[in-house]
Automatic annotation (TrEMBL):
This is J domain-containing protein. Residues 520-533 have a biased composition (Basic residues). SUPFAM superfamilies: Chaperone J-domain, E set domains, Sec63 N-terminal domain-like. PROSITE patterns: DNAJ_2. It is found in: Endoplasmic reticulum membrane. The keyword ATP-binding does not apply.
Length: 763
């Protein structure tokens, strides 16, 4: 009968297996993630970078921010190499152990033949024991133990039979289980030390580490902003619904991340008592005498003064206030994003609870303005041309000539190359090259908007209370596409709202004056009914003010009624022409055949329409799956690097997209933070249509968090119709009186119930 044997590892063989598995689990992923990767330096990389003094200083700051980077990489490599050497050594030990156990042959060890007698076996054992005994000079303890084991296996008749038959002296059914721990762990003499080690690891070290992690994590939000700072934002934004820009800057400077009591990384220097008052005296409108806490605290006043000096591009002492400025500015984009989230949450909460006192759209837009101001180190009332290298305040007069009045970067990029160089003729060629590098890498966004009601029979018809989906398509190009393009339109994509209204009025006037296309046809020209229908359908499509929008907004009632009247007149004129001129109304042979086969067309059209509908549904389903996979993958934080010499770290281009009602100064959707706009990005924003019918104008806003003067506005017009009344006279909904009463019990619908919900309840 077989048996089982449990025993601790005396020789340490099975313990090696445990160590090998444990080390492999650590070394394989650790080597992949932590091995320092040597980046291949591009020889042209230095040539592509901006060589202005600010960018050179920034690169030195980024290199000096990690002084121990080389030593850390060396230690990582050393630890990983030592781990792999130890793993290879353990693997060799295990392979030797397995080799010895697999090659245990008692006949070979005693050096006798397989049919040797007992006398020959004993004689061979005595001869080898005199040589291998540990007390002898030529002794070998390990070989002597194997010799004893081989002698016992061949002198015992039962063990010899088991060996010859099963290859194992212990028989066929014996299974040995080795515990991968040495036996000294359970020995009585070592019990105190073992228990002490367990207590140290599981009762002291592990709870301490978990407690420190938990205490730190509960103090921060998901974006690693202090929860106390978040509460501070909620308080001030609720207190001041319409917040000016400078007050938003004061609240940003009052963030508790800049207070040493809440952040141990803050450094307080004795030199601040001398240098900080001098800096405050040189800054105007700092409002340092405010008594409102914590805006009047010392840490808040210092952070506010450094932010004012940063945006005023003032020189600071390098070893004191300049270091503090870099630390404060580096944290600002994360804090501003948290401020935007707090304002949008307050607005949405006020909508849900019908609170009148809610932050206005000006508040959240002023908060958004802070980000490009701090990244570029420039006030919002300054010229956006100052974002270019080598352009100082005294150089702005070059752009205000009588012939050309350049106000923004897009107008400068659209100039022909000769005119641009002539405009900047006083700048050396090297500096001009830096200007063109930076200008060419700046973003040029194609901003397209499409409105629809998804999962509806008529997606372009907006009824009261319907969920409107606004699809925003952003296509990012470099500003270099505008260089020297004389055929490019004078109106850029970054036009003001007044310009959009003017162009919209001009296009509407031109559309009214322009006669329909089919009225230009001569009487003698033959045309089929299909062609006239296509032309009529194409003429009815409304147009929008922005040429970039792929799907136009809904037309107003006046325009739709006028289009219908014009169509009726055209159809009447067409019928009159056909009845008056029989020669012109004659159809060609092909058209006659088509008219004969007109009876078969409805069936074919139904089939093709069903196939097209299935294809569209399948495409929508595939798009939904792709969007879900993209959400599961997580949002990337890499887009394009921003030229910002005064920002002490690498900054990526991010954007905010949201919908607002400029008339009521309200926010309709929470701002969507676009963090991965490399080439194209598609965003869907949803809001509820107004309850009352009418024509409404909303604005889709695109704002940059890195550049000044790159914001865009796109108006959308919604012709909101009345919601269809509930259908009650349908024959399939005629229930008996008892069932009708049962259906009516407790079926009160809310004011936000959609028509689909009503139909589902009725069915």
């Amino acid at each position: 009968m077989g048996g089982q044997k449990f025993q601790y590892d005396e020789s340490g063989g099975t313990f090696f297996y445990f160590l090998i598995s444990f080390l492999a689990l650590l070394l394989v992923p650790g080597t992949y993630y932590y091995w320092p990767r040597s980046t291949v330096e591009d020889p042209e990389k230095e040539r592509k970078l901006c060589q202005c003094a600010g960018c050179k200083r920034k690169r030195k700051i980024m290199e000096s921010s990690e002084p121990w980077k080389g030593a850390k990489n060396f230690m990582k490599k050393l630890l990983i190499v030592l781990g792999w050497v130890f793993l290879i050594f353990l693997t060799y030990k295990v392979s030797q152990f397995d080799y010895e156990m697999a090659n245990f042959d008692p006949y070979d060890i005693l050096k006798v033949s397989s049919g040797a007698s007992q006398a020959e076996i004993k004689k061979a054992y005595r001869k080898l024991s005199l040589i291998l005994h540990p007390d002898k000079e030529t002794g070998n303890e390990k070989a002597f133990m194997k010799l004893n084991k081989a002698y016992q296996a061949l002198t015992d008749d039962e063990a010899r039979k088991n060996w010859e038959k099963y290859g194992n002296p212990d028989g066929p059914g014996v299974i040995n289980f080795g515990i991968a721990l040495p036996s000294w762990i359970v020995e009585k003499e070592n019990s105190v030390w073992v228990l002490g080690l367990y207590a140290l690891v599981f009762m002291i070290a592990l709870p301490t580490v978990v407690g420190m992690w938990w205490y730190r994590s509960i103090r921060y939000s998901g974006d690693q902003v202090l929860l106390d700072t978040q509460q501070l934002y909620y308080y001030f934004f609720h207190k001041t619904p319409v917040m000016p820009l400078k007050r938003a800057l004061m609240i940003l400077a009052a963030s508790l991340e800049y207070d040493k009591k809440h952040n141990s990384e803050i450094v307080e220097r004795p030199s601040d008592n001398v240098e900080l008052p001098q800096l405050i005296r040189n800054i105007e409108n700092l409002n340092e005498k405010t008594r409102e806490r914590p805006l009047s605290d010392a840490y808040s006043l210092k952070a506010r003064a450094l932010l004012f000096a940063h945006m005023g591009r003032m020189l600071l002492p390098e070893n004191s206030l300049e270091i503090d400025r870099q630390y404060i500015v580096k944290k600002c984009p994360y804090l501003i994003q948290e401020m935007v989230n707090c304002v949008s949450q307050l607005i949405m909460l006020a909508y849900a609870r019908r609170i009148n006192m809610l932050p206005k759209i000006e508040t959240i837009e002023n908060v958004m303005k802070l980000s490009p101001m701090i990244v570029q180190g420039l006030w919002d009332n300054k010229s956006p041309l100052r974002q270019l290298p080598h352009i100082q305040e005294e150089n702005l007069k070059w752009f205000s000539s009588k012939k050309r009045h350049i106000k923004n970067l897009q107008q400068l990029a659209q100039l022909p190359a000769e005119d641009r160089r002539a405009l900047l003729k006083s700048i050396p060629d090297e500096n001009y090259s830096d200007i063109m590098k930076v200008l060419g890498n700046m973003p040029y966004i194609d901003f397209q908007v499409r409105c629809e009601v998804i999962d509806d029979e008529e997606p372009t018809v907006y009824t009261a209370g319907a969920i409107v989906t606004v699809t925003v398509i952003l296509e990012r190009k470099s500003m270099a596409v505008l260089f020297g393009d004389e055929s490019a339109p004078d109106k850029t994509a970054y036009e003001t709202k007044e310009d959009e209204e003017e162009t919209e009025k001009k296009e509407d006037a031109a559309q009214v004056k322009k006669p329909p296309a089919w009225l230009k046809q001569k009487k003698g020209k033959k045309s089929s009914k299909k062609g006239s229908k296509k032309l009529a359908a194409s003429a009815v499509k409304p147009t929008t003010a922005a040429a970039a929008a792929p799907a136009p907004a809904a037309a107003t009632p006046n325009t739709t009624s006028s289009n219908k009247k014009s169509l009726d007149k055209v159809e009447e004129e067409k019928k009159a022409e056909l009845s008056a001129d029989p020669e012109d109304s004659e159809l060609s042979d092909d058209e006659a055949e088509q008219s004969e086969d007109s009876d078969d067309e409805p069936a074919n059209k139904k089939k093709t329409s069903n196939v097209d509908d299935d294809d569209k549904e399948w495409e929508k389903f595939q798009d939904k799956l792709a969007k879900r996979e993209k959400v599961l993958e997580g949002r990337s934080k890499t887009s394009h690097s921003v030229h910002c010499p005064l920002y002490p770290d690498d900054k990526q281009e991010y954007w905010w997209v949201y919908i607002s009602d400029r008339k009521s100064h309200t926010l309709l959707t929470a701002p969507y933070h676009v963090t991965a706009l490399v080439d194209t990005e598609e965003i869907q924003l949803k809001f509820t249509a107004p309850r009352w019918p009418g024509v409404y104008t909303f604005t889709v806003c695109l704002r940059s968090d890195s550049y000044l003067g790159f914001d865009q506005l796109h108006d959308i017009k919604l012709d909101v119709k009345e919601a269809p009344e509930e259908i009650t006279d349908h024959p399939q909904w005629d229930f008996p009186e008892g069932e009708e009463e049962k259906e009516g019990e407790g079926s009160d619908l809310s004011e936000f119930t959609t028509d689909e919900d009503v139909e589902d309840d009725a069915e």
